[in-house]
Amino acid sequence: MTEASVSYNNIFAPNYSVTGVRQDAGSGGAVIITGSYSTSDNQLPQALLYRGPLYPTNSSGYIYLKPSFPNQTVKTSVFYGPNTSLYDPTIRAGNVRAVGSYKYCEDGGTVDHGMMYQGSLGGVGSWTQINMPDGVAGGPVSFTIPHSTMGD
Questions:
Q1: End-to-end C-alpha distance for the chain, whole angstroms
Q2: Were both Cys, which of 23, 29, 91, 109 would link to 75 (CB 3.0–4.6 Å)?
Q3: How many degrees, rounded to 5, is the angle at CA 64 between CA 61 and CA 67?
Q4: pLDDT tens across 27-73, in order?
Q5: What are phi and psi for residue 101, nearest 5 degrees?
Q6: Are 95 and 122 in contact (CB under 8 A)?
Q7: What is the pTM assigned to this prediction?
């Protein structure tokens, strides 16, 4: 019996993380990948989208979107689950829905808040904060981390 050979390939550059992947509609095999990036070991991670082939990845496919919420200075962020029009036709072709979490300076920057981005890969879209309501949880919830998106 011979052992199967397994080879691993780096998908992203160093200091970049992959957290989710979803096929993109009508794109000749392209995928949408979610994750985060840091430009150095000292920098806090920031949310990242990627559109292109799974391997080899193309650095021109990196999409750096900074979450934007009123009266909040975003400190760190990460995307987890992407969704595309292939799986949810209400997301128009060329657009994406991605969820993740972020921290912001005005509340001390230690609590994860959920977030959702829906819009174009060019950054024209809307940001929604997602937090567990205290009444539903029976008290304050310090960390809300949405992981994936499916349907509406």
A1: 49
A2: 109
A3: 145
A4: 677 999 999 999 777 789 999 999 999 888 888 899 999 999 999 99
A5: -140, 160
A6: no
A7: 0.87
- 108, with CB counted inside 10 A (0-12, 13-18, 19+), is exposed
88, 97 Cβ separation under 8 angstroms: yes
Could you tell me the CA-to-CA distances from 137 to 14, 50, 95 in Å, in that order?
38, 34, 33
Which tokens in the block code for residue 123? 């950054």
